[in-house]
């Protein structure tokens, strides 16, 4: 899932060289598919080094490693890449659980946000801000960018609202937790998303949009946030009345009402004595187990240290002044380095100036942190700024890892001979939303009752944010550049199909949850996953030429 990721901006370049409707309508220009036509290991290595379609989207050239460094031992090379794939997945999930989720939790508590507000603001902001930037860049910098932006946003929306919600429901049920979602807030989110998709479908069918229409499209999100705020403060007001009447000691843990009606664990309440303990505190390990733990500790250090040195953490459990000073100093430099190496395209002198300025800012921030923080306890002032910085840097690491992950997956697809159209249908949309999946699942699993509600709210508020703000502002910019003429929306009949499946998934949740008393269960999760796999099956069939376009008659 700030996510001023750098991955989703890169994704535009990936999709540009693959068919746009997740692999259906564009002509591939620079691919690496001819690698399998080379006869010798030397020719394959030379092809990978000289063909622009084999240039990695991340930082590591996996094709060159496989075909050049492991040319004599391809099986070993494949195992190496699979092991690195496991490491990347671990970094992604661990960053979400250890850094991103605590940052969201502490930031929402510091700002006194309910799960509804956090789920509709912080989580969409973290998971979707790069969708906004990438959509705007796609619309304004490429001739077929509108098609790319539409497919990227809608493809991510259907993945989050079906797969992510489905996985959350199955995990909650598997863990034997009974989670009851607040009905009014759930209906509000789904209805707004359905209304937004209906407006977008009308725009696609008409084939053009004016500047004033684009402003109306964006303004829907303002109405949504106002309604969320009204419901939040109304709930707080009612709850405050309840607290005033009830005994203060009995109500001290309920000062903020979660949107969950109730969360019941079938194993009842876990008492402090029953909580799991850390092995270093109370568990004595024998020599073999100690060796294993030490081994994994050493292996984990290269993964742990870079994040610890760049993500500010001020929790009591992980408090360390040296780490905080270093992370505050290095965080701006890391952001500048990533941006310049991936997207800046600046000359040497300009890069050096940027690094000097950003480095100076980092040193200044580190010096202030060293001077005004205690060595024995984390800071107690300006908590919002501290948690916000940790939030932003955890988001940066999440999408930096996702960027490298999708690059590796695309390379593995080329190695096993997967066609670009299939890559566009599977690897790209999955990689596009893997940050949302890991962050939302981590929130639900490790965040308790409120974490589950934040994750559920984010699964619907996130796509709404991406569609209304990402596509909305893209429409505003391109229609303003054409004013007073209208902006002509790219013709892609398969967009109707994507919106149709997205609506079906929303309606399924809207019908099943009330019938199940708003409980997350196997019926909801399994149905949503079936809907997504039907969508994927039809897309694959069309990519293979077994089906025609979906709603060309409507657009024509």
UniProtKB/TrEMBL annotation:
It is a multi-pass membrane protein. GO terms for biological process: potassium ion transport; sodium ion transport. Its main location: membrane. GO terms for cellular component: membrane. Belongs to the Ca(2+):cation antiporter (CaCA) (TC 2.A.19) family. Cation/calcium exchanger (CCX) subfamily. It comes from Lactuca virosa. It is found in: Membrane. Residues 82-228, 387-540 form the Sodium/calcium exchanger membrane region domain. Keywords: Antiport, Ion transport, Membrane, Potassium, Potassium transport, Signal, Sodium, Sodium transport, Transmembrane, Transmembrane helix, Transport. The chain crosses the membrane at residues 73-92, 153-174, 186-206, 212-233, 323-340, 352-372, 384-402, 422-446, 458-478, 498-513, 520-538. Residues 1-23 form the signal peptide. This is Sodium/calcium exchanger membrane region domain-containing protein. InterPro entries: CaCA_antiporter, NaCa_Exmemb, NCX_ion-bd_dom_sf. The keyword Plastid does not apply. It holds the Pfam family Na_Ca_ex. GO terms for molecular function: antiporter activity; monoatomic cation transmembrane transporter activity.
């Amino acid at each position: 899932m700030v996510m001023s990721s750098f991955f989703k901006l890169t994704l535009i370049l990936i999709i540009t060289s693959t068919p746009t409707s997740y692999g259906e309508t564009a002509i591939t220009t620079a691919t690496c598919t001819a690698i399998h036509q080379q006869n010798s290991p030397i020719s394959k290595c030379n092809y990978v080094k000289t063909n622009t379609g084999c240039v990695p989207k991340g930082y590591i050239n996996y094709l060159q490693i496989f075909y050049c460094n492991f040319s004599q031992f391809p099986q070993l090379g494949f195992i190496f890449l699979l092991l690195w794939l496991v490491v990347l997945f671990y970094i992604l999930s661990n960053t979400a659980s250890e850094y991103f989720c605590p940052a969201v939790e502490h930031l929402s508590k510091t700002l006194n946000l309910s799960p509804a507000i956090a789920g509709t603001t912080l989580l969409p902001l973290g998971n979707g801000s790069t969708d906004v930037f990438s959509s705007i860049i796609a619309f304004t910098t490429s001739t077929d960018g509108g098609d790319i932006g539409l497919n990227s946003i809608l493809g991510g929306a259907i993945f989050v609202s079906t797969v992510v919600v489905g996985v959350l429901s199955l995990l909650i049920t598997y863990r034997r937790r009974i989670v009851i979602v607040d009905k009014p807030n759930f209906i509000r989110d789904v209805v707004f998303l359905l209304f937004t998709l209906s407006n977008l479908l009308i725009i696609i069918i008409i084939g053009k949009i004016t500047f004033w229409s684009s402003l109306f499209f964006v303004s829907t999100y303002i109405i949504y946030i106002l309604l969320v705020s009204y419901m939040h403060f109304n709930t707080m007001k009612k709850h405050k009345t309840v607290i005033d009447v009830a005994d203060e000691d009995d109500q001290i843990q309920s000062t903020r009402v979660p949107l969950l009606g109730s969360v019941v664990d079938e194993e009842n309440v876990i008492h402090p004595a029953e909580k799991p303990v850390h092995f270093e505190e109370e568990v004595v390990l024998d020599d073999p187990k100690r060796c294993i733990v030490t081994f994994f500790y050493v292996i984990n250090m290269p993964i742990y240290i870079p994040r610890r040195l760049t993500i500010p953490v001020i929790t009591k459990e992980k408090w360390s002044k040296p780490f905080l000073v270093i992370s505050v100093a290095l965080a701006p430099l890391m952001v500048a380095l990533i941006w310049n190496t991936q997207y800046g395209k600046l000359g040497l002198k300009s890069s050096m100036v940027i690094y000097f300025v950003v480095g100076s800012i980092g040193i200044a921030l580190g010096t202030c942190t060293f001077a005004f923080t205690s060595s024995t306890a984390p800071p107690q002032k300006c908590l919002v700024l501290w948690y916000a910085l940790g939030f932003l840097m955890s988001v940066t690491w999440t999408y930096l890892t996702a960027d490298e992950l999708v690059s590796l997956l695309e390379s593995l697809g080329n190695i096993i001979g997967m066609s670009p159209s299939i890559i566009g249908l599977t690897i790209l949309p999955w990689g596009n939303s893997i940050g949302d999946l890991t962050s939302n699942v981590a929130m639900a699993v490790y965040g308790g009752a409120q974490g589950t509600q934040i994750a559920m709210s984010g699964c619907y508020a996130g796509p709404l944010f991406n569609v209304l703000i990402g596509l909305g502002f893209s429409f505003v910019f391109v229609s303003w550049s054409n004013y007073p003429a209208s902006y002509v929306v790219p013709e892609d009949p398969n967009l109707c199909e994507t919106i149709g499946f997205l609506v079906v998934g929303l309606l399924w949740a809207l019908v099943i949850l009330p019938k199940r008393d708003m409980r997350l269960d196997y019926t909801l999760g399994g149905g949503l996953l079936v809907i997504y796999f039907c969508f994927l099956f039809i897309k694959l069939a069309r990519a293979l030429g077994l089906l025609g376009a979906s709603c060309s008659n409507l657009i024509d």
